[in-house]
């Protein structure tokens, strides 16, 4: 006769708590990235423009399109457009992506900042550059940032 392991019994007893924790986690990573994006927009509502550079801010963050039970598939990402002036127009040269997503290498959720060249730039031989990843661990938060419940993230 086969018996259930202690892990199976524990998960079975705590299934509702585990599901609620997943929902809170997903809401907090979205709120964290959304809060950073909102803070940037408060500082400057229109695109950041210098004589030769323009940074276009997104209206909202990106996240998974449907909820899955796989926790590692959740993320919160914002994508800004980096444009350089060529002639009289600003031409997009890359996206700057930032946010929290699961990193397969470290098997943790991490804060990523990624520079992704625009399609035309990739055709000219440029590739992706990544700054990070940095671990997002309990008790740590970006300066001045708090979780939803007022606790450090």
Strand content: 25-35%
Major sheet description: 6 strands, antiparallel
Please give the alpha-carbon distance between the first and last residues.
Answer: 45 Å
Structural class: alpha+beta
Uncertain segments: 121-131, 136-153
The succession of helices and strands, N to C, reads: HHEEEEEHE
Helix content: 25-40%
Count every beta strand, where a strand is a DSSP E run of 2 or more residues: 6
What's the gyration radius in Å? 20 Å
Shape field: elongated
Physical arrangement of strands within the biggest beta sheet:
1-2-3-4-5-6
Number of helices: 3
Notable characteristics:
elongated; disordered C terminus; 6 strands; six-stranded antiparallel beta sheet; alpha+beta; 3 helices; 153 residues
Explain this structure.
- It is a single chain.
- With 153 residues, this protein is α+β, with helices and mostly antiparallel strands.
- It has one domain.
- Helix content is 27%, strand content 32%.
- The protein is built from three helices and six strands.
- It has helices at 6-13, 15-43, 119-123, and strands at 48-49, 53-56, 76-86, 89-103, 108-117, 129-135.
- It has a six-stranded antiparallel β-sheet.
- Strand 1 and strand 2 form a beta hairpin.
- The longest helix is centred in the N-terminal third of the chain and has 29 residues, at 15-43.
- It is elongated and about 75 Å long.
- Residues 121-131 and 136-153 have low confidence and may be disordered.
Task: Spell out the blueprint of helices and strands.
Blueprint: H1 6-13, H2 15-43, E1 48-49, E2 53-56, E3 76-86, E4 89-103, E5 108-117, H3 119-123, E6 129-135
Antiparallel strand pairs: 1-2, 2-3, 3-4, 4-5, 5-6
């Amino acid at each position: 006769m086969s018996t259930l392991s202690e892990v199976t019994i524990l998960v079975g007893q705590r299934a509702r708590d585990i599901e609620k924790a997943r929902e809170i986690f997903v809401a907090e990573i979205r709120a964290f990235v959304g809060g950073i994006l909102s803070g940037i927009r408060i500082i400057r509502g229109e695109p950041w423009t210098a004589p030769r550079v323009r940074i276009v801010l997104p209206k909202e963050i990106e996240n998974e399109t449907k909820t899955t039970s796989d926790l590692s598939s959740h993320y919160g990402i914002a994508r800004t457009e980096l444009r350089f002036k060529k002639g009289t127009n600003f031409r997009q040269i890359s996206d700057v992506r930032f946010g929290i997503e699961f990193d397969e290498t470290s098997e943790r959720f991490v804060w990523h900042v990624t520079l992704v060249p625009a399609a035309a730039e990739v055709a000219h031989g440029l590739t992706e550059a990544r700054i990070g990843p940095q671990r997002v661990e309990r008790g740590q938060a970006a300066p001045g940032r708090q979780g939803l419940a007022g606790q450090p993230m």
